[in-house]
Amino acid sequence: MTDVTMQDGCTRKCWISAALIGLVVALFALSGHKGIVAALLLGLLATGLLGALFTWMACAPVPRLGERSPTSRLTPVVEGEVPSVPEHAPSAPAPLMAAPAASEAARPAASEAPKPEPVAAKVETPAAERAKEPAVAPAAAEETGGSQPVALAQPRSGAADNLKEIKGVGPKLEQLLHELGIYHFDQIAGWNAAEVGWMDENLKGFRGRVSRDDWVGQARILAAGGETEFSKRVEDGEVY
After folding, report:
1. Looking at residue 62, what is its pLDDT?
2. Does 81 or 233 have the greater pLDDT score?
3. In-domain check, residue 154
4. Statement: residue 8 has pLDDT above 70
5. Domain span at 12
6. CA torsion sign, 166 to 171 to 175 to 178?
7. Among the listed ranges 73-87, 93-107, 194-208, 217-231, which one has the minimum average pLDDT value?
8. Number of domains making up the chain
9. pLDDT in tens, 201-213
10. CA-CA distance, 152 to 63, in Å (whole number)?
């Protein structure tokens, strides 16, 4: 007799037992004046619950002892013996083909192409005033890059602009600009990218301040006779 036949017989017996108990429950319900419909419902409910319970408890398949797991069926490897490689083992991936030497040589050439450097527009002063300016030759470019702006030996007409009206320029920084020959707004307004880079690197203790506070943009407004919100505060005595 097979396992399937034995399990079917067990299930049938469980449900017969459950049906008999359900019949007894229905008879007890009738004797308790529950009515035929209520007695039938209680009997069917008891039959269904008990049949499922009996089947689960008595007919569930039990694993056989001594059955080996798929892992234990593997052939043990004897010490010193080289295990054989299965036939379906994936083969090693083929090595990637080297790229042509011509394409490798072309890459650095493309990356070494020089990029055009943006140059800020200079604000030119009147020719008559430029003729009076005692120009000082700019210093050679530093190792950090850039070129020193054209400096003046002294302010034009003996009076320098109030460079403190530029946000980011305090009294100490204004004195440092005077030492570098910077006295007027139009000088700062005419700086190009290389000159801004030189000033950012050579303002001792204030590196990066020129580009960070946009001195050139502020100086262009002030050189044209305009005002900024910060310059109004300086003129009103609210700053410094």
Report:
1. 60
2. 233
3. yes
4. yes
5. 3-58
6. positive
7. 93-107
8. 2
9. 988 888 889 999 9
10. 101
Highest mean pLDDT among 32-36, 119-123, 236-240: 236-240
- Residue 139 phi/psi, 5° resolution? -75, 165
Tokens of 69: 């797991």
Structure confidence at residue 17 (pLDDT): 83
pLDDT above 50 (res 119): no
Amino acid at 175: Q
Which tokens hold the place of 17?
A: 């037992």
Choose the final residue of a domain: 58, 86, 104: 58
Q: Is residue 230 part of a domain?
A: yes
Q: Round to whole Å and give the CA distance between 150 and 47.
A: 107
> The tokens 């083969």 sit on which residue?
91
Q: Higher confidence at residue 166 or residue 98?
A: 166
* pTM for the whole structure: 0.41
Give the chain as a 3 state SS string: CCHHHHHHHHHHHHHHHHHHHHHHHHHHHHHCCCCHHHHHHHHHHHHHHHHHHHHHHHCCCCCCCCCCCCCCCCCCCCCCCCCCCCCCCCCCCCCCCCCCHHHHHHHHHHHCCCCCCCCCCCCCCCHHHHHHCCEECCCCCCCCCCCCCCEECCCHHHCCCCHHHCCCCCHHHHHHHHHCCCCCHHHHHCCCHHHHHHHHHHCCCCCCHHHHCCHHHHHHHHHCCCCCHHHHHHHCCCCC
216 near 196, Cβ under 8 Å?
yes
Whether 219 is covered by a domain: the verdict is yes
| Amino acid found at 208 | G
Q: What are phi and psi of 46, to 5 degrees?
A: -65, -40
The amino acid that residue 112 corresponds to is E
| Confidence (pLDDT) at 63 | 56
At residue 135, φ and ψ (nearest 5 deg) are -70, 145
